[in-house]
Write a structure and sequence with these properties.
Largest interface: A-B, 99 and 97 residues
Structural class of chain A: mainly alpha
Strand content of chain B: under 5%
Helix content of chain A: over 70%
Number of strands of chain A: 2
Order of helices and strands of chain A: HHEEHHHHHHHHHHHH
Number of helices of chain B: 15
Largest sheet of chain B: none
Shape of chain B: flat
Strand content of chain A: under 5%
Shape of chain A: extended
Radius of gyration of chain A: 32 Å
Largest sheet of chain A: 2 strands, antiparallel
Distance between the termini of chain B: 52 Å
Number of helices of chain A: 14
Structural class of chain B: mainly alpha
Order of helices and strands of chain B: HHHHHHHHHHHHHHH
Strand order of the largest sheet of chain A: 1-2
Radius of gyration of chain B: 26 Å
Oligomer: heterodimer
Number of strands of chain B: 0
């Protein structure tokens, strides 16, 4: 193989040298140009053959790199990429998971607007997102600013603020349902005895229109510690010199926040808002555990998109319809993310 | 004269600072109370009888006769030991695979040059904003056809290879100077050795951060096990606890004892790794 290659290279080299000689001797411009083109072709062939060896070195380098990626990428491709493609296809199909699969075009999507349960789920999810995102953002930023100062037992406070995020949802929602229990819980007991709210007006935290408020409050409580850590990391990236300069100019605390902290944290805030929005649209377990009762069924007032995806897939086995709802969820998340990216770009410009 | 003015100014400034300090502590105290009360309530209720749990007048944190046997009963009332075993196994395997494969792939993306690098990384990035809930149904159908339905293996496949882990580790590795790798390469170290001997030891903050995230999300996952694990002996602690709450919704003491038990492992892991945590988040570019 190698000998063959060496012979080939040698042959090309002599041919090219002969052409060079001809070019030097040729006086007619047109003919000369033709010869030059011919020689260039030979030269290219030569480098291609030589490159072959370099390429194999490159190939070796690529192989090493791929060997690093492969363990993760194979799992990722099989269990994430393929199902994603499958999900897009399924939204245009009619399938119960075992019988024949049929193409139905946009039928699944056409059914959505007249499906009252879907509309309710969409509306509730939106309300939940609109309530949770700004509240969590403000709470976590405030907490991060407080916990970034030199205070006693700072580490302890940070740990405590992070507890709800770490705590398992089943356990912690069980506590919440007890604390906010409409007839027996301590919150309503306080409202009754301390604030004098009459018995019949005591809020029913887990039903009716109030349930979304409870979900929002719970989410802020559970997730603010997580976003606080992200903000803390952001705050630590702001140079202390900026604040010193601000102090010299006589800026008060609010001015320092407005003109230094907030603008400096812009990319962090952007990240927090994007992540929060995506995570909020995924809401499912919180709703099922707080408002689902003992059988985990959600009524129209508390239903959310993911719950309806789950119902259609695993209770009604209408996989196409379920995937259509999933696509709606995906498109909303995508749109929101793109709008936020756009907005961030505009601010940068 | 000017001294006096300065003095006055200084005094009012220091008084403002003092008020500010007090305000900060008051806010902190309120937040801490809000954060911690549900946990204290959980602990308190876990040693009460069902009648005592909601007794408000008088309300006591520790009952006169603590019912410690709530903690004993929960193991026999439901197959708690089996649930704990399954969850521990699942969480450890997933976290280990996640750390290993993510850091492995991330090293390649951060420090090596190769064909289709950008394209491959784009595949990861594109799915980060894609909620798992969007493709959980086709994923289930696929796993079922692979015979993984009702197997812990399905949960491992589902959670061990995330785009998030690769992204997080890559961000961190990019902060490590490439000169370190170059020098090692000139010394004749293979890429695998550079990864194992140089990069891994340097990435403690990022690995801790990823461990916390993976451990917490796997331990606390509910929807995944709900879809895949049907047999009681396969269930995780979250499913088991939820099932128990559904069946015995008025056994408050027992529910709380089970809840406390389900919290202990995550809290231990978090406390062990938290000193690296803020640093880890900062250096992995998670702050955006």
């Amino acid at each position: 193989m190698d000998e063959k290659k060496a012979a080939q290279i040698k042959k090309l080299e002599t041919e090219s040298a002969a052409l060079m000689q001809k070019i030097r001797e040729e006086s007619d411009i047109k003919k000369k140009q033709k010869l030059i083109a011919e020689r260039e072709k030979k030269q290219r062939k030569l480098t291609a053959i030589r490159n072959n060896r370099i390429l194999s070195r490159e190939a070796k380098r690529d192989l090493v790199a791929y060997s690093f990626i492969a363990p993760n990428f194979i799992g990722f491709a099989v269990f994430t990429l393929i199902p994603i493609v499958f999900a897009f296809v399924l939204a245009f199909m009619n399938w119960d998971g075992s019988n024949e699969i049929t193409f139905v075009g946009f039928d699944n999507f056409m059914k959505l607007p007249s499906d009252t349960f879907f509309v309710a789920a969409l509306k509730n999810t939106m309300i939940y997102v609109v309530g949770t995102v700004p509240l969590t953002m403000i709470a976590s930023l405030a907490l991060a600013i407080v916990l970034n100062q030199k205070i006693i037992a700072r580490g302890l406070f940070r740990t405590v603020a992070f507890f709800p995020y770490v705590a398992s949802l089943v356990a912690i929602t069980a506590v919440w349902s007890m604390i906010f229990h409409p007839s027996k819980g301590p919150i309503n007991y306080l409202l009754l005895t301390v604030f004098g709210v009459p018995q019949e007006n005591l809020p029913k935290w887990f039903s009716g229109s109030l349930v979304l408020v409870t979900l929002i409050l719970f989410s802020v409580w559970k997730y603010m510690g997580y976003y606080m850590v992200i903000y803390l990391a952001g705050l630590q990236g702001i140079s202390a010199e900026l604040y010193e300069a601000g102090s010299l100019d006589g800026a008060n605390t609010w001015q320092k926040f407005k003109y230094i902290t907030w603008p400096q944290l812009r990319s962090t805030t952007f990240f927090v808002v994007v992540m929060l929005t995506i995570n909020c649209f995924k809401v499912y377990d919180i709703a099922v555990m707080l408002a689902g009762g003992s059988d985990g069924k959600l009524s129209t007032s508390a239903t959310v998109l993911v719950y309806y995806i789950y119902q259609n897939a695993f209770n009604y086995w209408d996989l196409g319809y379920s995937s259509a709802i999933a696509m709606v969820l995906f498109l909303i998340v995508l749109a929101v993310t793109l709008v936020q990216f756009r907005y961030e770009k505009k601010l940068e410009a | 004269m000017s001294d006096m003015v300065d003095n006055k100014k200084y005094k009012s400034k220091s008084r403002n600072a003092l008020i500010g300090k007090i305000l900060v502590y008051v806010i902190l105290l309120i937040i801490t109370i809000i954060m911690i009360i549900p946990f204290l309530w959980m602990l308190s209720a876990s040693i009460k009888s069902d009648r005592e749990v909601f007794m408000m007048n008088p309300f006591v944190w520790i009952p006169e006769v603590p019912k410690w046997d709530n903690y004993a009963k929960i193991w026999t009332k439901i197959p708690m030991l089996k649930f704990v075993e399954n969850t521990v196994l699942l969480t450890i395997v997933v976290t280990f695979l996640q750390l290993l494969t993510s850091s492995f792939a991330a090293y390649s993306f951060a420090k090596l040059e190769f064909k289709h690098k950008n394209g491959l990384f784009l595949a990861y990035i594109a799915t980060i904003a894609m909620p798992w809930q969007v493709y959980m149904v086709p994923q289930f159908i696929m796993m079922r056809s692979m015979g993984l339905n009702d197997k812990l293996m399905a949960m491992i496949c589902l959670q061990a290879f995330s785009a998030f882990g690769v992204f997080l580790m890559k961000q961190f590795y990019e902060g490590i100077p490439s000169e370190l790798c170059e020098a090692a390469r000139i010394d004749g170290m293979s890429e695998y050795k550079i990864y194992a001997k140089i990069m891994l030891p340097l990435s403690k903050p990022a690995l801790s951060t990823l461990t916390i995230f993976t451990f917490v999300s796997t331990w606390n996952d509910y929807l995944g096990p709900l879809i895949y694990l049907k047999t009681e002996s396969k269930k995780t602690i979250q499913l088991g606890l939820k099932m128990f709450i559904g069946q015995y919704s008025s056994e408050y003491g027992l529910i709380m004892a089970g809840s406390v038990l389900s919290l202990i492992p995550v809290i231990i892991v978090f406390l062990c790794l938290q000193k690296y945590f803020v640093e880890g988040v900062a250096s992995t570019g998670l702050k955006g």
